[in-house]
Each structure stands twice: as C-alpha cells, then as structure tokens.
Amino acid sequence: xxxxxxxxxxxxxxxxxxxxxxxxxxxxxxxxxxxxxxxxxxxxxxxxxxxxxxxxxxxxxxxxxxxxxxxxxxxxxxxxxxxxxxxxxxxxxxxxxxxxxxxxxxxxxxxxxxxxxxxxxxxxxxxxxxxxxxxxxxxxxxxxxxxxxxxxxxxxxxxxxxxxxxxxxxxxxxxxxxxxxxxxxxxxxxxxxxxxxxxxxxxxxxxxxxxxxxxxxxxxxxxxxxxxxxxxxxxxxxxxxxxxxxxxxxxxxxxxxxxxxxxxxxxxxxxxxxxxxxxxxxxxxxxxxxxxxxxxx
Length: 297
Hints:
Layout: H1 2-8, H2 11-35, E1 50-53, E2 60-61, H3 66-76, H4 84-93, H5 99-109, H6 119-131, E3 132-133, E4 138-139, E5 146-147, H7 151-161, E6 166-169, H8 174-183, E7 192-194, H9 206-215, E8 223-227, H10 230-239, E9 242-246, H11 249-257, H12 262-265, H13 267-274, E10 280-281
Parallel strand pairs: 1-6, 1-8, 6-7, 8-9, 9-10
Antiparallel strand pairs: 2-5, 3-4
Helix pairs in contact: 3-5, 3-6, 4-13, 5-6, 10-13
C-alpha cells in the first residue's frame, strides 16, 4: 500500500508518510520504554537485572568492515555475484555467526567461485582484508568501525545494573572484541566477554549461558540479550533469557529511504520477530534504558 501511495501522491504527501512512519517507530520505542515489554501471554515481563550485548550490528557498525570483508573475500575468489543483500539474506536465515565460514559457503554457491578452498585459506584472506596488510599498503577495514549506541546510554544502564551485570556475547575472536571495546573506551563497562574461542557459537545457547554463569546470574527473563540476528534471539531463548532485537543503522536507513518502518522492511528484523524476539528497537537501543530500574539511593 505504501509503495502504491508513493507512486500516486505528490512529493509533499510522500514526505508526510515518511514522517508518520518515523513517528510510529518512535512510538514503538516509547512503548518499550514505558511498559518494560510484555510476554506473548500478555503478562508483564520482569524488570531487567542484567544486560548481554552482541557486538556486530549492536555495538559496532560493521557494514563497512566485517560485511565488506565478506564481499571482498568472495570477490577475491571469483564469487562476484555475492552482494550485501546476499549476506543479509543468509544472516536472516540463521546459522551464519562465523563470517569466515559464511564467506566460504557463499563462495561455494557462486558458479564462478573458486572450488576446493579450505576454511583456513578463506580465513587468511578474510583477515587480510579486515585487519589490513601494511606490507602491501592495505588498510584494514576494521578501521572503519564506529560505536553505534551513545556512550551515555551504556553508562546509564551500567549505573543501573552495575558492571558485574554487563556482558558481551559475540562471535568475534577475543582480540577483535577487546580491541573494539578499548578503542571506544567502553571496556570498563563490561565484566565479562564471551567470544568465538570460548565454545559453540549462537544459536547454540552456550554463549548466553556461559555469560550468565560468569556474571553469577541465573538465566531468566530478567536477563536481556540484545542482538541483530535471529541467532542472537534463538540463543537467548534456548538459554532461558529474554531476546531483544535491534535494527542495524544500515537497515534502519534503508527502511527510512523507502518510506517504511524497519520493523516490517528489514528482513533481519522480520526474521528476529518471527523467531520470538520480544521487541525490535532502533539502532543504539536507547529505548531499553528504562527496562532496567534505577537503583534505590
């Protein structure tokens, strides 16, 4: 319907539609802020007592780094049909938490992609693009990463729950996780980081369960896991925690340009909702702050 209206309405009206959609997104986030989210059974969800955050797409804007490294790796091996949309489609399906393996799988789907590659070969090429190669004058794509949420948002949640209830749950190698946190001055806000080396990746519940164990909290609906893919939501639910989805800046911008809400326009958001995300929030997840009550003074 929105697409049809865009074809027949004057430009001024189209802009009004975009404004209304933006207001809808704002109201949706306000609902999250004021109601602390409801369960599918209509019962009030408990207040948040611990926060677990995925890194890529949640804390780190990675469309120009990890996602771009996938594309460049595929091109390097002749898989030129692979695009950012292709990567997004595979991420929406789930089971694609390891970007090295995803790159290999995507290469194998392209008829022009080099065959009989090993995961080690693809990983080495991927890391060259991502980390950079000073000897070849290649600047690492990792340098393009930025922090998505406001630092004040993270600090406020930390003030409410305490550093001992804040964790990173990521598929990144630990060195990449630590580097990003220190670079942006937020490593002091998290007491636990569960990374690639620690065990099975999401959607296996292990990373979420392990984060709870290291934080010393029992998995429950008061433990909020925020992610940008279905794998994050599935892992949270399998571990007995609350799964919340967040739109990436890239997908939110695309939805806005199309005059649509990211809740309906973004394939990853739709996929997260369909697999049970309690809600989908805007990039930066500022609306989640009041899910965590202020400490009594």
